[in-house]
């Protein structure tokens, strides 16, 4: 008798539990909510990363065999997959803790509202260049849900590898170039607006300054000095490829700067540049610093003093046309601000 009652109670309890679960699911559906055990199929981050990084790698200054990119510790499945894809393509990965480096990698997933509902926009940035695209999961397959948008670089032909997806929609197999939306590259010749410093202050301290590559810092080694000066004139001296030869045209420009210079109030900024391929071993640094030194020598022969010529270098195996010439010297005449 007791056993029969227990069995009956068990049946009733299970039936009640199933009824409650059914009602709960129905209520969730009626309210437009998802039950807690219901999840959307996860997208294939490996395919998404492969698709986006493929496009970035086609720009000359982001060539995997030339560019070093900076990565922070991955914080999501998507960022881990992006890092894996960069490594697979041959990029040299430099682990950093913060915002260091010109080519820092930033993967992110943005939620954007569209007429068709909310979409996930997947973005991968290397420095100022970014590529973005929306993706959907249809029948457990990850497919593009928008055209691919590239920002922060000049328009060029980009070949999509959309064949890695199963039957991508033809209207989405396109690339569009749009304006860069992030922070602008700092003008390396500009300096913070601080109080003017006297010539004696900086000339005494210059001997202990360890000059860094301007390409890596995006800031002049003399930014504190330049804070007390304003630009008067600027020219770019172009050098032959893999050469330190000054040439007659550049000599004439130097002579003009000497004639315009007031030794009591003026200084010269000399930034030697070498960006891109070179046939010389360690050629970019040697050429950049050598060109700056060659120009400084010309000014010294003209009678200027060492402390009136502030030289430094900017070099990299890839081009940096947005800011600096590929093979030359940026020469700027600066005049002390009036107090």
Structural notes for this entry:
This protein starts with a helix and ends with a strand. Strands 3, 4, 5, 6, 7 and 8 form a six-stranded mixed sheet that branches. A four-stranded mixed sheet has the order 9-12-10-11. It has a two-stranded parallel ribbon with strand order 1-2. It has 339 residues and is α/β, with parallel strands linked by helices. It folds into three domains: 38 residues, no CATH class; 134 residues, no CATH class; 138 residues, 60s Ribosomal Protein L30, Chain: A. The protein is built from eight helices and twelve strands. 29% of the residues are buried.
Give the arrangement of secondary structure elements:
Layout: H1 2-30, H2 45-56, E1 68-71, H3 77-89, E2 92-95, E3 105-114, E4 117-126, E5 129-138, E6 141-144, E7 148-151, E8 175-178, H4 199-205, H5 214-217, H6 223-226, E9 229-238, H7 247-260, E10 266-275, H8 283-301, E11 309-316, E12 327-336
Parallel strand pairs: 1-2, 7-8, 10-11
Antiparallel strand pairs: 3-4, 4-5, 5-6, 5-7, 9-12, 10-12
Helix pairs in contact: 2-3
What percentage of the residues does DSSP assign to strands (E)? 25-35%
The number of helical runs is 8
Shape: elongated
Mean pLDDT: 80
Concise structural overview:
The protein has 339 residues and is an alpha/beta fold. The protein folds into three domains: 1-38, no CATH class; 45-178, no CATH class; 199-336, OmpA-like domain (60s Ribosomal Protein L30, Chain: A, 2-Layer Sandwich), CATH 3.30.1330. The chain has helices spanning 2-30, 45-56, 77-89, 199-205, 214-217, 223-226, 247-260, 283-301; strands at residues 68-71, 92-95, 105-114, 117-126, 129-138, 141-144, 148-151, 175-178, 229-238, 266-275, 309-316, 327-336.
